[in-house]
Amino acid sequence: xxxxxxxSSKEVNEQIxxxxxxxxxxxxxxxxNNIKKEVSVSLEAEIPEELYKGMKEFICxxxxxxxxxLMSSALANFLFQNGSEDRAVTERYLNDLFNLAxx
Length: 103
What we know:
Largest sheet: none
Strand content: under 5%
Number of domains: 2
Helix content: 55-70%
Number of strands: 0
């Protein structure tokens, strides 16, 4: 890292405050206008090699799917089938269920 790229803790803290304020403002605008925004969270997980091979094979034979869609669908399926009452989970589960019928 070059010396010109280094920031003082004061600069970093100020940037964090600005980011938090910007996020709060965006959330307020979304809530005010009743706009739902899908938020993505990055997830890292270790899985058995057999599951990885199966996932890779599925994605190779179904180009409309990618690893993110597959993991999201699998997680929604698991949560729905194990009693989640979250509307977004149910919608995702049902959307994926009926979209699978298109293949």
